[in-house]
Amino acid sequence: MRLGFHYHVPALEKNRQIFLAGDIGRFIDSLAIYCDEIICFLHLPLPQEEANLDYPIQSSRVSLVNIGPHVSIPRRMVLARKISRQIKQYEIDLDVMLIRGPTPLLFEAAHACRNVPSVLLLVGDYLAGVDDLPQPCWRKELIRLWSWWNSERQLSVAKHSLTFVNSHRLYIQLEKKLPALVETRTTTLTETDFYAREDTCQSAPFHLLYTGRMSRAKGLLEMVEAVAELTRLGKDVLLDLVGPREKGDPVLDELANLVSTLGIAERVVYHGYKPVGPKLFEFYKTADIYLIASQSSSEGFPRTIWEALAHSLPVIATKVGSIPDYLEDNIQAVLIPPKDPSAIVDACVRLIDDMEYRKAIIFNGHKLSLGNQINVRAQEMVQLIQKWISSEHIN
After folding, report:
1. What pLDDT was estimated at residue 391?
2. Closest Cα partner for 167 from 302, 347, 264, 270?
3. CA 100, CA 123: separation in Å to the nearest integer?
4. What is the mean pLDDT of the chain?
């Protein structure tokens, strides 16, 4: 099967090697195992983005088509027809077009290859996340209007496509609207990425870890408030933050001011971006508790939770999006309400103080993660795509 792939991420080719961000690169390589060829239609990175393209594609079956610079969404929309014509040139070489969404040019990419089947992988909902954006109200309303228009165009494509979603709530939202809908679980984990241990929290200081985008919507301010209260209660804790800065979100500056005000500057450390793989996974191996305090109802199921479970970390997560759909509270993780620093404190205290409870959470969470490996998910996806494109519906 010859597969085309589009998403709104940058990629760079140098010395005959394609470089992507680790999560997307691992996904492409996992698909390439089961495909004859993959042609990626991706953007050229801006200079400040090149450092994050740290994953070299391993498969010789993957090629890259540069569809122009990774500029702002309005500028990309202006260039939409030009980009569509670029993709159209390769339509004859494809058996199927896979588009990860939501993405600004989803409709254009599908339309460019309208003579071959299209498959969507939806990992979020632009419209549901508008209220969480760090933007003034007037700008949010403009973004909301554009997001609605983009969602309607996405839906028009999905009605004639095979659509995968990695969110149970998105599945419920779409199941009566789409003829071919599949719920999946996305991950970056390979069989060599798992780290088994019976327990954490063996000695102070206890390391709380958050990995992911440095976004206000991830509850970073609440995490810091919780660290201050835990310190006041006599718990020797440190908070390690690992991940890229979120463009347009000043939350790291606010965090710096907050930790200074609370007198806990030495207890909160931002380590910057770390690539998916050993450099990132080392933080999981040395942490005691994984913490994610997302506030957004549009949250899917963060891949970082899978990574934490795979490294035998007890997870504290908020009851938002698809998180409570995939994790059993007090069985595989500790689930708490969003925007509630006191709930973070209570969950941390219990995990630190109650060894048997902590060990049970670790065991059950790690067991759950073992069933979610990227090669397994990729094989399932390719098999379903092949079945779908060979069905009477497509023919």
Report:
1. 81
2. 302
3. 7
4. 94
Residue 308 predicted with pLDDT over 60: yes
Residue 394: what pLDDT?
47
| The two structure tokens encoding residue 394 | 């497509």
Domains assigned to the chain: 2-187+374-389 (3.40.50.2000), 206-370 (3.40.50.2000)
Helix/strand/coil (H, E, C) string of 55-116?
EECCCCCEEEEEEEECCCHHHHHHCHHHHHHHHHCCHHHCCEEEEEECCCCHHHHHHHCCCC
As beta bridge partners, residue 333 has 329
Strand partners, 238: 207
The C-alpha atoms of residue 317 and residue 234 are separated, in whole angstroms, by 23
Three-class SS of residue 118?
strand
CA distance 323 to 213: 17
Distance CA 255, CA 216 (A): 10
In sequence order, which ranges of 263-373 are alpha helices (DSSP H)? 278-286, 303-310, 323-326, 341-353, 355-370
pLDDT tens string 114-171? 999 999 999 988 877 777 777 788 888 888 898 999 999 999 999 999 999 998 889 9
Q: Which of 46-50, 84-88, 336-340 has the lowest mean pLDDT?
A: 46-50
- What is the Cα–Cα distance from 281 to 287, expressed in whole angstroms? 10
Rounded Cα distance between 391 and 85, Å, is: 29
Contact (Cβ atoms closer than 8 angstroms) between residue 262 and residue 229: no
Alpha-carbon distances of 4 from 99, 257, 276, 281, 372, rounded to whole Å: 8, 46, 24, 30, 25
Give the distance from CA 368 to its chain's centroid.
Answer: 18
φ, ψ (nearest 5 deg) of residue 302:
-55, 135
pTM comes to 0.91
